[in-house]
Amino acid sequence: MKHNDLLWKAALEDLFDDFLRFFYPEAGQLFDLEKAFEYLDKELDQLFPPEHDKYAPRYVDKLVKVFTKQGIEEWILIHVEVQSYKDHDFAKRMFQYYYRILDQYDKPITAFAIFADSDKNFHPKYYEREFLGTRVHYSYNTYKIIDQDDASLKASNNPFAMAVLAAKLVLLRPALRDQQLLDRASALVKNLLNMQMSRDKIRKVMNFLRYYIHFENPEMIAKFEQRISILTGGSTTMGIEEFLLDNAKKEGIEKGKLEGKLEEAIAIARELKKEGLAIEFIAKTTKLSVEEIEKL
């Protein structure tokens, strides 16, 4: 499995509740999000043994057990294709997923196909077959990342929308120079930090963004990490995950104990303010007051 496949697989587990809310605004009424999700990857592999089945999973396939508010178990097949080429058998394979899962579990199924390829003309939405009066038509939910509107995604407060934006930025990579990619990726980081979400969600989305975006020049990776460090108020060697863990310790420091670090906090606040981050976020990060930051 390629690098991006692993990232998508991890992101779906990290953000699955956000995934449901992204596609179903009424998810809170439909699903019991307080109950843990069960990821049936091993069971899915058993249904599609790679040694004997040419249609075995080749992409990021997730089968997730979700409880509804009515107490009915719902099995959801999430298929995220991260390959950048057409597959003319895709719809047929989606149908095979459906009937094998139905045969195994006999539960309601909803399926998603998220296309992360760059071919705008490739968007299979259903599988159809007919012979001598017998007809099968199977359709599923589809989502084409390259067709999505950036403004709508940025306006969303859903962490999954940020993962989609990162994936779309990678699809535009051939037309962008490293510096352009760096600037756009930094803007994504800034937008993420201004969103109203938990530190844990920020960490998960940030890690997806950091590792999903690729630069031709390895030196740009270090520059991107430096940008992240400035935006998060960390040191140049501190990654986002370490920063967020360190934040808990920072929150325990009383204002009076911060006097020895006041000069450093002011310098960080200036950088964050230059980057256009919200005053409230800067105050929370540096422990300076809103009034002090506004005067900088």
Overview of the molecule:
The structure is a single chain. By secondary structure, the protein is an alpha/beta fold. It contains 14 helices and seven strands. The strands form two sheets. Strands 1-2-3-4-7 form a five-stranded mixed sheet, sandwiched between helices. Mean pLDDT is 80; it is low at 235-259.
Distance between the termini: 49 Å
Provide the residue-averaged pLDDT: 80
- Total number of helices: 14
Strand arrangement, major sheet: 1-2-3-4-7
Report the order of strands and helices.
HHHEHEEHEEEEHHHHHHHHH
What's the Cα radius of gyration? 22 Å
For the largest beta-sheet, the strand count, sense and barrel status come to: 5 strands, mixed
User: What's the total count of β strands?
Assistant: 7
The backbone outline, from C-alpha atoms, is elongated
Helix content: 40-55%
Give the percentage of residues in beta strands.
5-15%
The low-confidence runs, each spanning 5 or more residues with pLDDT under 50, are: 235-259
Structural class: alpha/beta
Number of domains: 2
Briefly characterize the structure.
With 296 residues, this protein is an alpha/beta fold.
Task: Give descriptors for this structure.
296 residues, alpha/beta, 50% helix
Task: Walk me through the topology.
Blueprint: H1 3-14, H2 16-23, H3 27-30, E1 38-39, H4 41-47, E2 60-67, E3 73-81, H5 90-105, E4 109-115, E5 126-131, E6 134-139, E7 141-144, H6 150-155, H7 159-171, H8 178-193, H9 199-212, H10 219-232, H11 240-251, H12 262-274, H13 279-286, H14 290-295
Parallel strand pairs: 3-4, 4-7
Antiparallel strand pairs: 1-2, 2-3, 5-6
